[in-house]
Amino acid sequence: MASADHPQSGIAANPRSGISVRPLTGEEIAAGLGDLADLRIRVFAAYPYLYDGDAAYEAEYLREYAAAPDAVLVAAFDGDRVVGAATAAPMLHQKAEFRAPFEARGLDVARLFYFGESVLLPEYRGHGIGHAFFDQREAQARRCGADAACFAAVIRPGDHPARPAGYTPLDAFWTKRGYAPIDGLVTELGWKDHGEDGESVKPMQYWLRQW
Hints:
Aminopeptidase
């Protein structure tokens, strides 16, 4: 995918007619949380997350996110319809279990931005929107004085029974963006997979980029 971002205007044009990508901040975030919750449940239902979405959990999680100072929600619009979204906020304001692997290594979380979900409906993929999400979140991180950004990706075994034939992970895309997995920098997060009776804890590998 090729970036079609225009960071100077805060708007990312896209080759797909009618698509725009722009960051929301402050009160605009709260207005977009309903769409983000729906997208999270729909997109994360697929492999590798297999998330059996829970509306009550989404409401609590997103309320906490929106309250974080300097948080940004980047939304992709097809006309007035939100078809994708990505989030970012200072790591300093994330849950203790998200900060812990960095703090254990003596890394300054006050200079680190955490990129949360990046969700996009399948029919809109392959048009540069993923790059625009990263461009806008990295711009917000720099504005807030961060000198590095990270995200966490679920670790699934290669022989997982739900892995689709021909599945290609996003590792190559992330590497092209300048991110790399850091050995031993792993956290854990629990959610309910489709087909599970309850939540189970999954390992999450951190990827990091410094600038």
